[in-house]
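input
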Amino acid sequence: MQPEDARHLEHIFEKVSLGKATLFLGAGASVSAGAPDSETLIQKLKDHFKTVHTNATDLFSVCQDIVETAPFGRNELEDFIRSQFETLEPTSAHFSMAKYDWQAIFTTNYDRLIELAYGKPERKRVCHPIYSPDFNANLFDRDILYLFKLMGCVSSTGEMGRMVITRSDYNRMLRERPRFVDCLHDVLKDGAVVFIGYSGGDF
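output
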């Protein structure tokens, strides 16, 4: 480790100890609990929806093709994706993450692993998931940990909070959920972000 790397880590740990670090979780953070990574989920979708023939290698494009291909529809696709995530249980790693005093948590994951990890009685802060653009959040309230679910959740219902699974969903999310980005900017003004579950090749 180079000296500048060590200083950077010290800076991050200091922010975490002061409650000024934000956690940002990707798909890799859920793999230990049995969740499929993006490549595995894409292959499972292609195997399940056998009449869909696409060379697409990203999740949103594959799901877009499924929705637009008869006889499949949105509901069947959502049901299949839910079946991959809704029964997952937190691992020791998730319970460990829940012990830190994060300023907020952002995630692109559909699962409920973080909510469940914070469900233990000894957790001092209440985890409040947000997956609809219509929300009120006081990021300075230290009794509440806000969990911003950028891509929706397996438990969300209704048009505003549904899972972002197709290319059209993603484009709409960018237009309709700017407040998520505003909140991320707010916590970054005097803090740091810890990314877990992303690779160097993620967009």
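quick obs: The mean pLDDT is 84.
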